[in-house]
Amino acid sequence: MRSLIVSIAIGAAIFAGLQGCTQHKSNPLEGTWELVDAKYTPSDPTFSLSSYRQIKILTNNHWVFLAQDKSSPKLTNGSDAELLAAAKTFSAGGGTYTLDGDAYTEHVEFFYTPNVVGATLKFKIKFEGDEWIQTGTMPLKALGLGDKDLELYERYRRIK
User: Are 92 and 59 spatial neighbours (Cβ–Cβ below 8 Å)?
Assistant: First the structure.
């Protein structure tokens, strides 16, 4: 009898654990994404998506992006001028984020442009198949990075 009660208790615990697992919703943003389309207003004449690669990696609550111009210069002597030219072709940033319905909010903890560190950036998102579309305003004026804010449209495709 005692072994039957123990078996029932173990079975109930396993069932409760499995129920908890099946009720856990996966985060649709988790994974690695590649920028496949971008539109910025006002436009930046120095930016060309065809010569640029950006990925964005998200965990359950953290994000990071890495971007580089595909034609970045190779170093030949490691001089300060070469290092500066190479640094200008690379960007990165990251921090934590929250997702509430279609409201995606990034809390910036590090960024290649120091003015952005500490900012909270709010976007609207939607999913279309394996693509994630993000729209919103980058508050350049408030961050001291321009006289106008930047309206952005970015479309990412999940990297499998």
Answer: no
**Average pLDDT of 5-10?**
42
Helix intervals (H) in 46-122: 80-87
**What distance in Å separates the CA atoms of residue 4 and residue 6, rounded to the nearest whole number?**
5
pLDDT tens track for 103-115: 999 999 999 999 9
Q: Where are the domains of the chain?
A: 27-158
What are the beta bridge partners of residue 100?
103
CATH of domain 27-158: 2.40.128.280
Question: The pTM is what?
Answer: 0.79
Q: How would you classify residue 63: left for phi > 0, otherwise alpha for psi between -120 and 50, otherwise beta? A: beta
Do residues 119 and 105 touch, judged by C-beta distance below 8 A?
no
